[in-house]
Amino acid sequence: MRAALILTLAAGAAHAQDLGPRPVFAPVDMAQAELGQLLFYDPVLSGNRNTSCATCHHPRFGTSDGVSLAIGEGGIGLGPARRPDPENPPEQRIPRNAPALWNLGAEEFTVMFHDGRLEADPSEPGGMRTPLGQEMVAGFDSVLSAQAMFPVLSGDEMAGHYSENRVSQAVRLGHLSMEGGAWDRISARVAEIPECRSRFDALLGTGAPIRFTDISNVIAAFIRLEWRADASPFDVAMTGGAPLPAPAARGQGLFYGAAGCGSCHSGWLQSDHGFHAIALPQIGPGKAARFENHARDEGRMRVTGQPDDAYRFRTPSLRNVAQTAPYGHNGAYATLDAMVRHHLDPVKSLEAYDRTQAVFPEFAAEDWRALNDAEETARIAAASELAPVSLSDAEVADLLAFLNALTDEAAVAGRMGIPENVPSGLPVQR
Question: What is the model's pTM?
Answer without folding.
Answer: 0.94
